[in-house]
Backbone:
């Protein structure tokens, strides 16, 4: 009797070890095939037929490559991370010793995935160097983790009233292509937007990120939508060295005739150089039908050089008519009023566009 009981116990142990080894030896490919066959999986049907499937989304921004001034666009490379639960893929009872499986052989073609697309994308592509940059994990509870690397260009209309002190708002808008909120809901992961600040563009600084729920109603119903907006402030280093300092120095040089006698041709030359600077500063931005901050600055500079030119002309006429007293008074007024006027205009300009 004891011998029989011992033999039965030994057989059970061997059977248990055999089953466990078989479960451990299951490859991801046969694992998914077995799981899908067991439930007669239909990838065209959403995970939950009597409710809404919640999809959590997050972005890892690898790099913001450029802001297209002429095209009004933002180019970036990022990882789109999605997480949802598909009860049909719960395998706790089938493989109790397996907690997570990485799926291979393009599993996104075999199971249901959210139909998320970028509403404002001008062009987009998956990264496939050196292999397809997509990753999918399936957890025992039926949760799916899907990550894909994407390079895309998004529409970003630019408002250039304050150029070059402008702050641009560029968004990435994600929306379901065909599901309404009663079938699919979009939400954010715990860390919805992670940004790698090592790869940044030299022309702008990213100083804030805004998250927004943008669901809206269409003919088919209310469609889920999420958007992430980047606030980008333009760097002023180039404009200080190439625009503000040269133009300010030229206005200052135009006051030289108040102290020394110089030819009027010098003032004309300064006006020509200021005009060229104005054209150069606008070479990288689209033509606008409104005045920008840079336009106002150059108008102030050109206006003060013109005033200096007019003052010199009037002073020369007065001296030719032997009205030296009035000419000296005009010269003294110019020495005081022109620097004060330019200094006050500069103060108002920079306080208005850089401080307020």
Residues:
């Amino acid at each position: 009797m004891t011998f029989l009981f011992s033999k039965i116990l030994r057989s059970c142990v061997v059977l248990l070890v055999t089953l466990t080894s078989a479960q451990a030896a299951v490859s991801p490919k046969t694992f998914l095939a077995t799981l899908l066959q067991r439930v007669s999986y239909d990838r065209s049907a959403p995970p939950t037929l009597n409710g809404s499937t919640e999809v959590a989304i997050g972005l890892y921004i690898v790099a913001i490559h450029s802001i297209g001034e002429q095209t009004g666009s933002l180019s970036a490379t990022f990882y789109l991370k999605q997480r949802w639960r598909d009860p049909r893929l719960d395998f706790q009872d089938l493989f109790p010793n397996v907690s997570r499986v990485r799926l291979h052989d393009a599993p996104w073609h075999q199971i249901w995935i959210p139909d998320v697309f970028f509403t404002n994308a001008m062009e987009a592509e998956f990264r496939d160097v050196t292999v397809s940059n997509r990753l999918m994990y399936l957890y025992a509870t039926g949760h799916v983790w899907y990550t894909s690397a994407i390079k895309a260009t998004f529409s970003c209309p630019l408002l250039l009233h304050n150029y070059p002190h402008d702050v641009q708002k560029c968004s990435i808008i994600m929306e379901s292509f065909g599901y309404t909120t009663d079938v699919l809901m979009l939400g954010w992961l715990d860390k919805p937007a992670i940004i790698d600040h090592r790869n940044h563009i030299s022309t702008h600084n990213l100083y804030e990120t805004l998250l927004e729920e943008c669901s809206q109603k269409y003919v088919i119903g209310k469609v889920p939508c999420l958007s992430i907006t980047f606030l980008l402030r333009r760097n002023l280093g180039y404009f200080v060295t190439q625009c503000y300092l040269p133009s300010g120095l030229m206005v200052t040089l135009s006051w030289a005739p108040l102290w020394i006698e110089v030819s009027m041709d010098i003032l004309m030359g300064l006006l020509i150089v200021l005009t060229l600077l104005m054209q150069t500063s606008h070479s990288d931005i689209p033509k606008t039908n409104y005045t920008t901050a840079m336009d106002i600055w150059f108008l102030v500079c050109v206006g003060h050089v013109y005033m200096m030119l007019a003052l010199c002309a009037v002073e020369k006429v007065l001296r030719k008519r032997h009205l030296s007293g009035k000419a000296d008074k005009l010269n003294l007024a110019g020495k005081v009023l022109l620097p004060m006027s330019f200094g006050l205009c500069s103060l108002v300009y920079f306080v208005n566009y850089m401080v307020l």
